[in-house]
Inverse folding.
């Protein structure tokens, strides 16, 4: 199945971030970490006021029952993810925590302005990179960052995607360190997943705690599938007619995110297709229906670039459609997201995001990037070598936390070994400071307890504009002190509320 | 609709129907075994045959015993038509076609799967057997109810129904085929206790004892039973009923799509050629030969539907 070349799809590891071993207890923050409910000093923050008064009136026993009820609901609905290589326990639930994460309308406004700015820049960057490469000519990004990058797809050079859109669906992973400080941890410009959990989490909360939604004015998320369909339809090739045919392409029922693929197709009211349902017929990509082949205008693909077209990419792939790239280049179909968008969310490119945002928008970036030292630069390398015990060092092309050094947690021996690696191949590494991540309470047997979180808002891009669903998916490290929100390692999810101010 | 989706719906409902039929056969076998004087496992041989799983059973077992037969039919993973594997296959197909199902149908199917996995996790003891079988049938009935109550009457529904009735017709035909000799009019055997047991087996395995009594009172004429199971259009598991439904649903598809594919012509031919006479004509043709013919026509029909509606290519 499609694993090779996959950007970490759903799970993510926050362990490059500090604060991991500082224990917290009770609901009051004793460590100086920023808690989104209790701040730094234990004073209840405004967005949580109504929630807190509700929670105080609840019997923990009933809430425990509700937590179990939520699990039953998820299991029955089949909101599961598949675990590769395990026939027996092939489907698992992602744990759901019933305590919502609450963001004020004001906070969200600022965030969404920053997200929109970043997404506009990413899209402009992609267009530029596959056309005139002005940003390289201007000397803002070194040539080799692109030319020698595996994520750069030469087949896309000079291709004009319908509507000029490259990243139709984007997920921006954010972490928070303070009242006003959000950092972008990474951009997901390929095929970001998790939106079905955002929707089902809200559905579950509405069913279990309707009274909470009468007390709080929570901005709705349920429009997402409709907006997605509209946004995709608006990107259809010219000449598609009034109601373009949209389909979702999945690698199949054994893919870890199959539930989500089926869910989105169902909610949008479009077909869920696999490679073997598709074929190029008369210069169009068409799906095999009970009445013959029917052309598709927009393909929302959840299959990686590599597997998309056995004729143009990986010849062994059976997951895609042989020849689809030729149809695409001729303007006969919209592929969302466009092939080759991985160049924009590559780790090496990440450190250039502030420059990228400024270059294409002419504005200062609203969202912060985590400060990053590129060890290829001599001054940066000197700094990193001097401060190795305070920094997190990552391999530029690594993923999933491999080949990584967490300075504050490393032994002297490990530090020394890494120093040698850095000196030998500085260009392979970047370094970042350790930041202390915010926490949000989860519901435990002993009441509320703070846990680290991140946030993935979902963004839709079309020629008609950018649409950001208020909130997004909050992933939470359920283990005390842990920074791993990865679903396969004890990570869970929460409903995320953006309040109407 | 995608050809793949039509295929998935067809098999999802076939497997649900199969799970239900097999559990009914197990129940019948157990009932007969318990009410019979003397003990014999022979009845289980015929139950396995009726279920179409005898060959697989003998390949995996040296000898026939009641508990191994029951286990084979209920939960053997190696048996592609055990209740458990059928439910798993139904659910796998439901996942494949989830976008074509209503939320309620999906949930009922998933709940059936979850219930079956728990109920059939271990060998079922004799004491737990009735409850387990009841649970399975309640669950599949729930899926059927959700299907009736919530699904649009469009091509999705047609393929679901076609799967259901093809499987059911096949099942009824196989029951008749295994027991055809019991139904052959025989002066000698009528009224003997062996025949009473056999007839009861047949009627029970299609849940038709009540219906038969309603229509024929206390008749024990094998001709009546044959008439009832083959030609009675009011009996929801009779061949005439199932094939009538197949014809209806293939007809809806044909008029909906504006085509007259071969499968439609074939079902029309089956109905006119084999289900429009009286029972004497069937018996004259030879009951065994007749059933064999219908079975092969049904299998031909399934293959033709696959082609006409592009299940695979």
């Amino acid at each position: 199945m499609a694993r090779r070349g996959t950007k970490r799809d759903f799970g993510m590891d926050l362990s490059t971030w500090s604060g991991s071993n500082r224990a917290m207890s009770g609901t009051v923050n004793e460590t100086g970490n920023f808690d989104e409910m209790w701040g730094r000093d234990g004073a209840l923050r405004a967005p949580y006021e109504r929630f807190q008064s509700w929670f105080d009136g609840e019997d923990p026993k009933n809430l425990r029952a509700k937590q179990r009820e939520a699990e039953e609901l998820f299991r029955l609905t089949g909101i599961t993810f598949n675990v590769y290589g395990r026939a027996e326990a092939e489907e698992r639930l992602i744990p759901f925590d019933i305590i919502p994460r609450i963001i004020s309308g004001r906070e969200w406004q600022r965030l969404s302005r920053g997200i929109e700015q970043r997404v506009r820049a990413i899209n402009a960057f992609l267009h530029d990179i596959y056309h005139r490469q002005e940003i390289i000519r201007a000397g803002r990004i070194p040539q080799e960052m692109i030319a020698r990058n595996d994520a750069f797809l030469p087949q896309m050079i000079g291709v004009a995607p319908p509507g000029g859109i490259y990243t139709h669906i984007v997920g921006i992973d954010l972490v928070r360190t303070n009242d006003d400080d959000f950092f972008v941890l990474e951009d997901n410009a390929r095929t970001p997943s998790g939106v079905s959990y955002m929707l089902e989490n809200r559905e579950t909360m509405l069913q279990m705690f309707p009274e909470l939604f009468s007390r709080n004015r929570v901005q709705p998320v349920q429009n997402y599938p409709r907006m997605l369909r509209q946004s995709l339809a608006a990107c259809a090739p010219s000449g598609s007619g009034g109601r373009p045919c949209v389909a979702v392409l999945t690698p199949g029922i054994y893919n870890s995110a199959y539930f989500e693929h089926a869910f989105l197709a169902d909610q949008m009211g479009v077909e869920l297709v696999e490679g073997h349902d598709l074929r190029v017929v008369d210069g169009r990509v068409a799906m095999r229906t009970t009445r013959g082949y029917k052309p598709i205008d927009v393909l929302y693909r959840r299959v990686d670039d590599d597997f998309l077209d056995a004729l143009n990419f990986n010849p062994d792939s059976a997951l895609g459609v042989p020849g689809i790239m030729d149809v695409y280049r001729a303007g006969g179909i919209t592929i969302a997201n466009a092939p080759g968008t991985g160049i924009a969310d590559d780790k090496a490119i990440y450190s250039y995001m502030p420059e990228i945002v400024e270059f294409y928008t002419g504005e200062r970036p609203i969202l912060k990037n985590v400060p990053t030292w590129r060890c290829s630069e001599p001054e940066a390398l000197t700094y990193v070598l001097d401060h190795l015990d305070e920094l997190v060092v990552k391999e530029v092309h690594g993923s999933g936390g491999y080949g990584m050094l967490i300075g504050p947690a490393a032994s002297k021996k490990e530090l020394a070994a890494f120093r040698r690696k850095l000196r030998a191949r500085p260009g392979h590494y970047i370094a970042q400071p350790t930041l202390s991540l915010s926490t949000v309470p989860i519901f435990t047997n002993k009441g509320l307890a703070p846990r680290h979180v991140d946030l993935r808002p979902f963004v839709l891009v079309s020629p008609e504009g950018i649409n950001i669903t208020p909130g997004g998916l909050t992933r939470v490290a359920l283990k005390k002190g842990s920074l791993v929100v990865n679903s396969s390692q004890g990570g869970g999810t929460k409903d995320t509320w953006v309040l109407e101010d | 609709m995608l050809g793949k989706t039509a295929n998935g719906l067809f098999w999802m409902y076939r497997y649900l129907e199969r799970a239900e039929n097999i559990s009914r056969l197990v129940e019948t076998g157990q009932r007969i075994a318990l009410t019979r004087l003397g003990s014999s496992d022979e009845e289980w041989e015929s139950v396995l045959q009726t279920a179409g799983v005898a060959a697989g059973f003998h390949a995996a077992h040296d000898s026939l015993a009641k508990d191994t037969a029951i286990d084979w039919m209920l939960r053997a993973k190696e048996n592609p038509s055990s209740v458990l594997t059928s439910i798993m296959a139904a659910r796998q197909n439901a996942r494949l076609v989830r976008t074509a199902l209503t939320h309620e149908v999906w949930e009922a199917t998933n709940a059936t799967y979850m219930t079956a996995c728990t109920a059939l996790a271990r060998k079922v003891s004799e004491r737990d057997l009735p409850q387990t079988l009841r649970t399975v049938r309640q669950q599949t009935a729930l899926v059927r109810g959700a299907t009736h109550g919530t699904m649009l009457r469009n091509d999705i529904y047609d393929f679901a129904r076609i799967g259901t009735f093809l499987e059911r017709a096949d099942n009824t035909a196989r029951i008749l085929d295994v027991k055809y000799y019991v139904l052959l009019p025989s002066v000698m055997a009528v009224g003997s206790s062996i025949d009473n047991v056999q007839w009861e087996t047949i009627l029970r395995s299609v849940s038709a004892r009540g219906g038969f009594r309603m229509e024929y009172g206390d008749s024990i004429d094998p001709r009546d039973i044959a008439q009832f199971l083959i030609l009675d259009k009011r009996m929801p598991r009779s061949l005439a009923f199932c094939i009538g439904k197949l014809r209806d649903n293939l007809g809806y598809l044909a008029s909906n799509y504006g085509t007259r594919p071969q499968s439609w012509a074939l079902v029309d031919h089956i109905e006119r050629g084999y289900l429009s006479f009286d029972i004497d004509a069937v018996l004259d043709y030879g009951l065994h030969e007749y059933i064999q013919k219908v079975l092969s026509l049904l299998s031909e029909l399934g293959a033709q539907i696959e082609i006409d509606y592009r299940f695979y290519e």
Summary: The longest helix of chain A spans residues 105-129.
